[in-house]
Design a protein that fits this description.
Elements (H helix, E strand, L loop, with lengths): L1 E6 L16 H18 L3 E4 L9 H11 L3 E8 L9 E5 L5 H17 L3 E6 L3 H5 L4 E8 L3 H7 L2 H19 L1
Parallel strand pairs: 1-2, 1-3, 3-6, 4-5
Antiparallel strand pairs: 4-6
Helix pairs in contact: 1-6, 3-6
Bound molecules: zinc ion (ZN).
């Protein structure tokens, strides 16, 4: 079983930046690497869009997963909103009534159970990495980096590890 892990943003594109200066691109990379370590331990084959802080285009991320022949694609992000009160966890898929939608639901539930943030649910979205990938693909918005309390959580190693555990448990639940 081949899982492609996409750490959102990186390099010239830091993604959202928290009120205390936390970079989304650094958080997503750390969670991605932690997730990959867990999945590898559990016997999954894992590939990454990036393992360092570097720029990778959205189309290249999808292309890498397609060429590798991934069975599932998981993109890791932190949410952000002009409303600094916004908080919680959500997961995105491209087309309704697909395997990806079910996969999003299982992973989102598992993640919320593990990190105990507000469950915002799952949504269909026209994101390039979801549209251009040929396997069931989801994009996880772990928590809001624009929210002070969640930025502090996202800065913590324990919380990031819990994000990885929650996503990994969801992947295992869905694929075994
Ligand atoms: Zn992002």
């Amino acid at each position: 079983m081949k899982i492609f892990i996409d750490a959102g943003h990186g390099g010239k594109n830091p993604g959202a930046i928290g009120q205390n200066g936390l970079y989304e691109s650094n958080v997503t990379l750390d969670i991605a690497l932690k997730l990959g370590r867990i999945l590898t331990e559990w016997g999954y084959e894992v590939e990454y869009s990036r393992k360092t802080d570097k720029t990778v285009s959205l189309s290249d991320r999808a292309k890498m997963a397609n060429e590798w022949g991934a069975n599932f694609f998981v993109s890791i992000h932190c949410n952000s909103n002009v409303n600094k009160e916004a908080n919680g966890t959500s997961t995105y898929f491209y087309k309704p009534n697909t395997v990806a939608e079910s996969f999003a639901s299982v992973v989102n539930n598992s993640l919320v159970r593990q990190i105990e943030r507000k469950d915002l649910g799952i949504f269909s979205a026209n994101f390039a990495v979801l549209r251009l990938t040929r396997m069931p693909a989801i994009l996880v918005e772990t928590a809001f980096i624009s929210n002070l309390a969640e930025e502090a959580l996202l800065a913590s190693n324990t919380f990031r590890q819990n994000c990885a555990i929650g996503i990994a448990n969801g992947i295992a639940e869905f694929t075994t």
